Amino acid sequence: MISQAMQDAFNKQINEELYSAYLYAAMANYFEASSLKGFAHWMRLQSEEELGHTRRIVTFMNDRGGRVILDAVAAPQVDWEAPLAAFEAAYTHECHISACINALSTKAMEEKDHASHAFLEWFVTEQVEEEANADEIVQQLKLMDGAPGGLFLMDRELAQRTGGGEATA
Ligand code: OFO
Predict the structure, then answer these.
(1) What pLDDT score was predicted for residue 168?
(2) Which residues lie closer than 8 Å to 136 by C-beta, 6 or more apart?
(3) How far is the CA of 149 from the centre of ligand 1 (A)?
(4) What pTM was estimated for this model as a whole?
């Protein structure tokens, strides 16, 4: 059985993951409106991946006899001044999520909740990838410095992204 304190903390994280899904859906729509369909595809898959993270926590909570309480999800920003600004915002957001996961992991240790701590290891590792993925695109966008040709090629590259749905979660 999971403690009330851990249950509350996981419910907060569920809201963070849902907000992530919402934010990346908003970015996907921004890219669609900017005729950058490859960027939009990448962000749609990222949004689905966040729903996978949510499902992973929901399943864990249910397995531990916790009660999942869904709270209101804040409205995300809907426009950015350029693709670089959107991906910088995504990278900043992932750094925030990493901090949330680290705080959750610390709380599990303090609570001597070994099951939660072991469960969260997957998220700690995942966040390394989440930050790296967003940052790689930020760096590429900076290198091309707004050149339309570069943006066109990058759009085709991002259109190749697969996965993201976390079917196993
Ligand atoms: Fe759930 O990792 Fe991104 O936000």
Answers:
(1) 38
(2) none
(3) 30
(4) 0.95
- Centroid of ligand 1 to alpha carbon of 57 (angstroms): 12
Nearest-atom number in ligand 1 for the CA of 127 is 2
pLDDT at position 165 is 55
Over residues 157-165, the mean pLDDT reads: 86
Q: H or E stretch including 97?
A: helix 83-110
**What's the confidence (pLDDT) of residue 30?**
98
d(CA 139, CA 52): 27
Domain ranges of the chain: 4-158
What homologous superfamily does CATH list for 4-158? Ferritin, core subunit, four-helix bundle (1.20.1260.10)
Which residue out of 15, 18, 94, 101 has the highest number of ligand 1 atoms within 8 Å of its CB and is therefore the one to mutate? 94
Report the alpha-carbon distance of residue 137 to residue 143 in Å, rounded: 10
